[in-house]
Amino acid sequence: MNSIKSLLISQIFKKVLFIFLSTIFILNIAFYLFSNNQFQKEIARQYDALYNMTAHLSTEENFDTLIIYLEHYTHNNDVTIHFKNITEQTIFSNDFDARLQKYEPVYYDDILLGYIAVNFESSKLGIDILYGFIGLNLTSIILFAFGMYILYKFLRNENTKLKLDLNNIESESSVFSYKEIKQLHLQLMNGQIQREKQRSVYESHIKSIAHDIKTPLSVIRIYADSLVNEKLNPTKDVFLDIQAETVKIMNLIPKFIELDYVELPYIQDVSLFINRYANKYKEIFESKHITISLELDRLSINISDKDLERLIEHLLFNAFYYSNPQSNISISVHNKNRKLVVEDEGIGMTIETIQNILKGPYRSVEAMKLNDKGSGLGLQFVKDIVQKLGANMQIDSVIGYGSKITIQFPQ
């Protein structure tokens, strides 16, 4: 099982190492190309100067001066030179290992004066370039090591913050370093509060029914005690009263049996449910290449889980069925004006279609072409729930551009 710390460190280190090595590789290539170009230019310049001076001194047969010049040149530039006259007699050479093989003729005004071979590989310029390569890589490695040390300390510190944040989830009065974990904490806390509210409403409902049953039971018990102790005569009226109280109990029993807590309304934040629902069916919408955009403020309304699910389900899937592929569906919840807005980029509706939908179950010809399985009841369910909540629903639509349904909840 992977830990967050190993994930942070190993994954980030791999990426940073890859970036570092790639950068060093590119820098080395760039440095090589640039330095090699400059090296070749400088070598060409020095060779031309050496060639011309050698030719000039040779044409005057001033070999002593030439030897002094070549000695001075090799000493200052750390190069290997071998110069021979036209009879191939060595005039000057510091090629003690006889490594120079390539000789070039030396001319002065088309007069052959001798042959020269030069090796610039061991020159000071070549050594400087080599040191430059080594310095570049050493500096890069030192900077990389220092950067890795700083990054490691930073990741270790962030890992500690992350662990503290995770440990503080669902703890009251917690302070978080990461806003995403804080949002998760708030969602879980709100969900817990909503479940407690739902349980409270359910328990209150049960207590109310139990209280309603207790009253007729008390009446029946009083009658029974009075009859047993012969304090009351068993008349028809007495039995009719007992029968009436029994009927009351019988009428209350189905409320226990059929009671479903998801149908009990309670004050809950609709944005939490919408976020869960949209993510739950994300893959279905992706099958049509439809994206869902969410802009959710916290908005509390008094609604049951069942009604809220029906409301969001019909609004969202109506938008899905009648939207074009590769389009967008936006769902927004606004706390300030207490509105829920679902907007799509679908086929749209005419004013006549909207009026018919508000009257009762209705489907236009265009809607049946796009989705032949619909019944036209979806918006009717939405309308019924909206009326139950005391809210208002407004439908705005343009053919070919899409539809927008706005639900205004009461204050």
TrEMBL record:
Residues 208-411 form the Histidine kinase domain. It is found in: Cell membrane. It is a multi-pass membrane protein. One of its GO terms (biological process) is cellular response to phosphate starvation. SMART domains: HATPase_c. InterPro entries: BphY/WalK/GraS-like, HATPase_C_sf, HATPase_dom, His_kinase_dom, HisK_dim/P_dom, HisK_dim/P_sf, Sig_transdc_His_kin-like_C. It comes from the Bacteria. Its EC number is 2.7.13.3. It is an enzyme of class 2 (transferase). Keywords: Cell membrane, Kinase, Membrane, Phosphoprotein, Transferase, Transmembrane, Transmembrane helix, Two-component regulatory system. The chain crosses the membrane at residues 12-34, 129-152. One of its GO terms (cellular component) is plasma membrane. CDD domains: HisKA. The keyword Transmembrane applies. GO terms for molecular function: phosphoprotein phosphatase activity; phosphorelay sensor kinase activity. It catalyses: ATP + protein L-histidine = ADP + protein N-phospho-L-histidine. This is histidine kinase.
